[in-house]
């Protein structure tokens, strides 16, 4: 079996969640690598959408920013941010791929401040960016968390930047967000999580090879539900790793 | 219409479309006049202390960096800055010219968070109000529409709403909750474009970001352009004009005006320069040294280009992807 690191595995798992012939709103960072890998593997007809206007880019080269020229290279559309956000608001974007500094049991994300006080904050993070719209409007949101530990999988976020299921079942709709939307999957360096249909709580679906269920629970501050039959994620294939290393991120910016 | 909830942040600029109308009617010429000038002239004439200021696109992408450097050289202060980005916002924050920040996202994307933003905000020096990227663009759109607010369905249910200056109301038509974003009228907008004529008719290649909205939301607008072209060229492809002359107050010829950021089809971002700045920005003294060398140490964009060196810039030209 080929050797691989955690980030490479994370990218492969996220990539496998990207379905061919669907639209996906791609946030900055790992989602870009996952989308690029997906297009070169199982989903050549995946249509990546980027918030500053690029739709359907080839992703031959890895974008370094959500507005750089690679986000609309050989694309079908080079529009602007309003059109992209409005397109997702009207229900045209299936998946949204995001990252975050903290996540809670309902899939809400924090990328704004660390600490109890908003201003002046203990640690100022970047802010929402386009994440708030992506998670408000895409049908299924997928969060990618590079580090699964108790400081990041928390009971209570320091700041709720981006909506998951807010406070539980029905709360998105009660807040005025569009119905039938919300978090779908969470990928971390330990496992793959989904959300319980009734309670909307984060639920462990699969662990990575060599990771035990207990390990995931021990590294989560909130009470994580566990699926009846937790499976094991398949390790990256030789082909996935080759494409990831040679074509997706040859400059080793992330892996 | 019943206000159900209000964000707690201060409105750093008043959403008053009629005041905007009166102002532009009184102050902006509707005649096609030659507005080509140097960056020194443009900034001296049109940027004032205390202005609300916005830049487009962002940081490493088609950003008005040469104009930002000139604002810093002229020390325009107490600015109320709106938006997203990295280099241009970092520069202004590092030069301590910013009082308030309507923030959506300030960070390095691939390389993580901004040390300069952290120092400026965590020290309490710069006040913030938080918004999402969509919300900020829609605030400009509302201003562009000439209305005081715009209803949207994002921001709802979150602290991003709570720490913004938005309001949640019950929709008078559907009864659903909607988020009202206050229009953001800017005193001064800065946009870097691919081509402009001397009157300020501008064309942009690739994605248009929020150039359409920001240009229409700005009382005063300075555009910098990679290339100055004849009006006849503009008139051959008027459908490519994204900013017409009557919105524009000054046109500045600025080759490599987005460096160290990229300009699609023209030059790729200067990764080495960005990484060096990223490293130096972690330390306040080194940050100052960077500004001393690349901002205060040059008189204008011509000198900046000489400092960076044509060999290096030609290399960046060769690295940009084609169509």
Structure write-up:
The complex is a heterodimer of chains A (255) and B (323). Chain A has 255 residues and is α/β, with parallel strands linked by helices. Chain A is built from seven helices and 14 strands. Chain A has helices at residues 6-16, 30-40, 81-89, 131-137, 171-175, 213-218, 238-248, and strands at 23-26, 47-49, 54-55, 77-78, 95-99, 102-103, 109-110, 113-114, 123-124, 140-145, 183-188, 191-195, 202-207, 225-232. An eight-stranded mixed sheet of chain A has the order 2-1-5-10-11-12-13-14, sandwiched between helices. In chain A, strands 3-4 form a two-stranded antiparallel ribbon. Chain A has a two-stranded antiparallel ribbon with strand order 6-7. The longest helix of chain A has 11 residues, at 6-16. The radius of gyration of chain A is 17 Å and the shape is globular. Helices cover 36% and strands 23% of the residues of chain B. Chain B contains 13 helices and 13 strands. In chain B, the strands form two sheets. In chain B, strands 2, 3, 4, 5, 9, 10, 11, 12 and 13 form a nine-stranded mixed sheet that branches. Chain B has a four-stranded antiparallel sheet with strand order 1-7-8-6, with helices on one face. In chain B, helix 6 (133-145) crosses helix 8 (211-217). The mean pLDDT of chain B is 97. The interface between A and B is large, with 60 and 65 residues.
Radius of gyration of chain A: 17 Å
Spans of chain A of at least 5 consecutive residues whose pLDDT stays below 50 are: none
Overall average pLDDT of chain A: 97
Please give the domain count of chain A: 1
Strand order of the largest sheet of chain A: 2-1-5-10-11-12-13-14
CATH hierarchy, class of chain A: Alpha Beta
N-to-C series of helices and strands of chain A:
HEHEEEHEEEEEHEHEEEHEH
The name of the CATH topology of chain A is Glutaconate Coenzyme A-transferase
Q: Work out the helix count of chain B.
A: 13
How many beta strands in the DSSP annotation of chain B? 13
The tally of helices of chain A reads 7
Helix content, binned percent of chain A: 10-25%
Mean pLDDT score of chain B: 97
Main structural class of chain A: alpha/beta
Shape summary of chain A: globular
Low-confidence stretches of chain B: none
Shape-level CATH architecture of chain B: 3-Layer(aba) Sandwich
């Amino acid at each position: 079996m080929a050797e691989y690191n955690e980030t490479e595995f994370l990218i492969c798992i996220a990539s496998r969640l990207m379905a061919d012939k669907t639209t996906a709103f791609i946030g900055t960072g790992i989602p870009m690598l996952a989308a690029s890998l997906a297009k070169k593997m199982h989903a050549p007809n995946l249509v990546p959408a980027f918030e500053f206007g690029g739709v359907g880019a080839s992703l031959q080269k890895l974008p370094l920013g959500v507005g750089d020229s690679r986000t609309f290279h050989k694309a079908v559309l080079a529009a602007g941010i309003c059109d992209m956000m409005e397109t997702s608001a009207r229900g045209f974007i299936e998946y949204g791929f995001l990252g975050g500094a903290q996540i809670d049991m309902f899939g809400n994300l924090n990328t704004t401040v660390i600490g109890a006080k908003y201003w002046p904050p203990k640690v100022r993070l970047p802010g929402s960016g386009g994440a708030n719209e992506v998670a408000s409007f895409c049908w299924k949101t997928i969060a990618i968390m590079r580090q699964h530990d108790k400081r990041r999988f928390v009971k209570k976020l320091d700041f709720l930047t981006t909506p998951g299921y807010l406070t539980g079942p029905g709360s998105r709709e009660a807040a005025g967000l569009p119905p039938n939307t919300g978090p779908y999957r969470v990928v971390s360096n330990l496992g793959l999580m989904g959300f319980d249909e009734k309670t909307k709580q984060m639920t462990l679906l699969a662990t990575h090879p060599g990771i035990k269920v207990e390990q995931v629970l021990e590294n989560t501050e909130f009470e994580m539900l566990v699926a009846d039959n937790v499976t094991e994620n398949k390790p990256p294939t030789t082909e996935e790793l080759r494409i990831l290393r040679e074509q997706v991120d040859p400059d080793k910016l992330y892996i | 219409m019943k206000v159900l909830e209000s964000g707690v942040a201060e409105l750093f600029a008043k959403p008053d479309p009629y005041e905007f109308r009166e102002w532009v009617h009184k102050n902006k010429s509707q005649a096609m006049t030659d507005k080509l000038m140097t960056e020194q002239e443009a900034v001296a004439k049109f940027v004032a202390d205390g202005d609300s200021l916005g830049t487009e696109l962002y940081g490493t992408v088609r950003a008005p960096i040469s104009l930002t450097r000139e604002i810093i050289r002229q020390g325009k202060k107490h600015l109320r800055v709106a938006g997203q980005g990295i280099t241009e916002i970092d520069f202004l924050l590092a030069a301590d010219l910013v009082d308030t920040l309507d923030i959506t996202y300030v960070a390095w994307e691939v390389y993580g968070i901004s040390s300069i933003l952290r120092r400026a905000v965590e020290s309490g020096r710069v006040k913030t109000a938080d918004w999402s990227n969509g919300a900020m663009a829609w605030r400009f759109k509302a201003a562009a529409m000439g209305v005081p607010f715009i209803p949207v369905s994002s921001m709802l249910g979150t602290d991003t709403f709570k720490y913004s200056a938005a309001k949640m109301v019950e929709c008078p038509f559907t009864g659903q909750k909607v988020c009202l974003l206050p229009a953001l009228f800017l005193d001064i907008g800065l946009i870097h474009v691919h081509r402009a004529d001397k009157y300020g008719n501008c064309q942009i290649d690739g994605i248009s970001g929020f150039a359409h909205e920001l240009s229409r939301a700005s009382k005063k607008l300075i555009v910098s352009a990679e290339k100055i072209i004849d009006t006849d060229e503009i008139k051959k492809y008027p459908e490519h004009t994204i900013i017409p002359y009557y919105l524009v107050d000054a046109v500045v010829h600025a080759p490599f005006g987005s460096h160290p950021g990229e300009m699609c089809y023209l030059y790729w971002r200067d990764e080495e320069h960005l990484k060096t700045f990223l490293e130096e920005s972690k330390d306040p003294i080194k940050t100052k040294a960077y500004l001393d060398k690349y901002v205060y140490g040059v008189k204008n964009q011509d000198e900046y280009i000489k400092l960076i060196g044509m060999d290096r810039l030609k290399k960046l030209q060769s690295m940009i992807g084609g169509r």
